[in-house]
Amino acid sequence: QVQLVESGGGLVQPGGSLRLSCAASGSIFSINAMNWYRQAPEKQRELVAAITSGGRTNYADSVKGRFTISRDNAKNTVYLQMNSLKPEDTAVYYCNLDLLQLLGGLRNYWGQGTQVTVSS
Questions:
Q1: pLDDT digit string (tens) for 89-116?
Q2: How far, in Å, CA of 9 to CA of 116, rounded?
Q3: Under 8 Å CB-to-CB from 11, ≥6 apart: which residues?
């Protein structure tokens, strides 16, 4: 079994910064893609940022230049550094991992979600 624990959300003023973390633990052999999604009220969940096992990154146009995704493979952790936050960044943020389990093969896991609220 694999567990994902997210942290780092909260309330921040426009222009502020937050750093999200998502740590995976359990019977993990390796982790392939690590992604961050978000879902605002009454909107569909959208991909915010992605990072491959080789470190290649991809971002939604709305966050390019403001958000940075990174990973620490030794800690099975993915981060999302969010700078210059805007009210429209308000959403529940979810990490999403494609990982190879020690037993059970390749599976996709979601974190529990962490609320990010950008408001003055």
A1: 999 999 999 999 988 789 999 999 999 9
A2: 5
A3: 117, 119
